[in-house]
Design goal:
Blueprint: H1 3-30, E1 33-38, H2 45-57, E2 65-71, H3 76-82, E3 88-92, H4 101-108, E4 118-122, E5 139-145, H5 152-155, H6 157-162, E6 165-169, H7 181-191, E7 196-199, H8 209-223
Parallel strand pairs: 1-4, 1-5, 2-3, 2-4, 5-6, 6-7
The structure holds guanosine-5'-diphosphate and magnesium ion.
Amino acid sequence: MTTEQLTFKQKVLAENQRIAASLRGRYQTAGLLCVNLISSPGSGKTALLEKTLEALGQESPRLRVAVLTGDIQTDNDARRLARYGYPVKQITTGGTCHLDGTMIERHLADWDLNDLDILFIENIGNLVCPSSYDLGEHSKIVLLSVTEGDDKPLKYPSIFFKSDLFLLTKIDLLQYVPFDADEVERNARRIHEGMEIIRSSATAPGGLDQWLTWLHAKLAAVRAGEPALATKA
Ligand SMILES: Nc1nc2c(ncn2[C@@H]2O[C@H](COP(=O)(O)OP(=O)(O)O)[C@@H](O)[C@H]2O)c(=O)[nH]1
Ligand SMILES: [Mg+2]
């Protein structure tokens, strides 16, 4: 990278940081939990959200949740998620490999955050670019499925370092693939000591129970005043 390119990238990231700080303030004022889901394409972000919205819809009282879902092309995911009766918007980036603060700000423009308890953001399928862009969220959550290889935390350390939670997805397929679930957890904790890890499945009964428990605990912490921290450097 030339010096000019480096300076430009630094300016873009600094501007994003400014917008993220403003979003963080708005989430805080509204007492809203914001989580940013990040993974490779196909690891199960939308499937996780589908099952999560379905489960939350059966709870009483019903939490007020909304979803921003990002993709390079198509509104397929927004259509999948809109079935559950919650507000959903697709962010189509047309080529950009991550969501940034401006895109979030723009798509939140006509939602009153005071009317929401949880905002889910499904990032673009990519383990690299989204890790550099703070969206003001309380937590980045990295998903990796059992078909992707247990060495991936070592190959993509930044996103494992910056995420609060690692969801090991598609655990129902473990019996069919050579994948060492204990080893992937060891690798994740080599990068991020003490990282919280949940094994999940969007297809097995009860496969999301631990995730739902985590989500409720996080919401309770935010309501009790836990701040959203700026993304780790
Ligand atoms: N067996 C199994 N398949 C899953 C699971 N989660 C997602 N899938 C499948 O994996 C594919 C990609 O899932 P999707 O949610 O679209 O991934 P995304 O690109 O990360 O949003 C779809 O065919 C899903 O049905 C799971 O827990 N178990
Ligand atoms: Mg998706």
